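agent> Task received from the user: take the single chain below, predict its 3D structure, and emit structure tokens. No templates, no multimer pairing.
agent> Plan: (1) validate residues, (2) run structure prediction, (3) serialize to tokens, (4) report one or two observations.
agent> Step 1 OK, no nonstandard residues flagged.
tool_call: predict_structure(input=
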Amino acid sequence: MVLKKIKSPFLRYTLLAALALVLFFFVFILSIYWGAWGKVPNKEELSDFQYQRASEVYTADSVLIGKFYLYDRQPIAFEAIPEHLRNALVSIEDERFYDHSGIDYQSLGRVAVKTILMQDQSAGGGSTLTQQLAKNLYPRRDRKKTNIVVDKIKEMVIASRLEEIYTKEEILTHYLNTVSFGDNTFGIESASLKFFNKPAKNLNVEEGAVLVGMLKATYGYNPRIFPERSLERRNLVLQAMANNNHLSNEEKDSLTDKPLKLDYRDFDNNAGLAPYFREEVRKQLLKWNAKQKEEGHDYNIYTSGLKVYTTLDYNMQFWAEEAMREHMQSLQGSFEKSYGKNAPWRTNKKLIEKVVKQSGIYQKLKKQGLEHGQIIDSLSKKKQMVLTDWEGEKTVQASSIDSITHYMKFLNTGSLALDPKTGAVKTWIGGIDFEHFKFDHVAQSKRQVGSTFKPIVYTTALETGILPCTYFSAEEVAYENLKGWSPSNSGKKDETYLNYSMEEALSHSVNTVAVKVLEKAGISNVLTMAKNMGIFSKLPEQPSLALGTGEIYLNELAGAYASYVNDGRAVLPYLIEKITDKKDSVLMEFKPKRARKTAFSEETRQIMIEMMKGTIDRGTASRIRSTYKLNNAIAGKTGTTQNNKDAWFVAITPKLVHVTWVGLDHHEIGFKSTSLGQGANAALPIFAKWMQEMNKHPYYNEITKAQFERPNPAILEMLDCEPVKRDGFFKRLFKNPDKKKTKKFRKGN
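)
tool_result: status=success, residues=749
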């Protein structure tokens, strides 16, 4: 009726068009509301959404050292968010947050006028924090411009529903727990830990302003990448806080003058403290998770927000890594210098070809169907790449083969420290650099252990009734029934007429005596003893066993040595104390696993400790005292394998057992000389430098100042003998020093 009264056809049709357009938009909005353009979550769904939470890994002293996640997020409660941070957020992002009901029509109108009529592209989008929360919870899947209107309206619908369900405080909390800070980091808690190494509740005003300022452009205002831009943005946030009466002008000016200070921590799996340890924790978690699923529990180590409390000591691990890096850098320089221009990674073509063929890139090209020649041609092409050494990263022109040979020359290491009473791991170093050398030399590598196996031989001998002051000739023997095998001793000392007590032979690692002790004790008895001490790797039933030709895992060896300060019982090294859910309710606790039976007597245990003290005080590890000036109570054993391929050092203290291995991943390459590659030179310094640092800190006095118990007087009496005896006149008279003695090795007990 109204339209009929309008006489002007133009005006009538214009009004009809306007009404049709309004009707169209009304129907369009209704269609979005009803889900014609994709489902819009209802109130029930919005009231029960769940965050994907990162699982956290903590040291025994409650330091967060790592996370496992798809999205790095650690949700926190409203009370844990500082008031100044909430004020900063509202001031810069949504000044009318407490006045609107999810959609700020006043702001939308202002943006529309500026954008459409005034063509001001910097006017912003007019989205409220509630709308931004809607976008965080239900990210836009399609980035096409044609869908922007649909997405915006969806977000407005969701925002209105969120405002009906949640209080303003809850909306702020959900927003700050879901918003992205870039680098796959979500939520204020994770961002605070990453950029300032502190929980959000401990952020000060200027730090909170930095993080809030990032939200406009997480990359462009990233304080690590663009500190100047971040500083400008922070100050803009502080100004907005002052404009909204959350800061006085004096406070704002004072904070604006402060420099930008970060304490950045990246929870990248390749970086940070104890990466090899964290990877082993992850593997064990996956096994635990699989068992939990079998029992009907639905946990996910990447999304369930589990908390994993480990046995690791933060400071001990930090100092262990520092000691390792300092020593290995120096040793690497000496190692390369010893080979010079004729190094095998430069001149040994067969070895280089073997290593290239074993490389991942070679195997990948082979699977693609390329022939060997084609692969080599491809891998020989020079290109710009980054190579890493102990000096840092260098950008060079090199081929893939150059890269492979570059990394094959690096010495590697593995070390482990544990509590010998429980097996709780205190430090764990699986290699020199997790990013470039993923292989873990603690849990994955079986290497010949050299002379570190000798204590097991001597322990067996004592248990079979051989007294510690029994003397064995150091004379070299060729064993006829072993194809003339003739173990010899290192060094140039003439030992033809010398006889060593067991203590002296062990402390100076005399090979010829170790084989004779094994012969007398019996190979089968030694193998049984090794098993009782927690060595489960298959060992060779051969006389060379005495020299450590058996291949053993490093953590196995540590558990076995623990028996010497654990009442004769071996332990199984363990890493995880307990696993809790996101609310800290305990899901699983892990108890120490010790051998039920003692492997040897208390008398033998005390004798062995005294004998291995000799290794430290006057034997092959005496530089512990002379060079590193350590006065701690320490027993131990060095080890070096044939051709200087592996260097070992095991240290026993009353409260700790520490095992170190150093060598190359490629077994074909060893140290150029024994003086460089022996355990006392290549492996021992890592322990020594670590213990030096431990001694500086009174907090660890309980460990560093602990003393071995005083041995029974009868034990000291049993050890009271001359360390070396020389053959008598007549024995020397009838012994030809130029002729090697021959005999058959007695394999029976």
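agent> Step 4: summary for the user.
The longest strand covers residues 411-418.
agent> Done.
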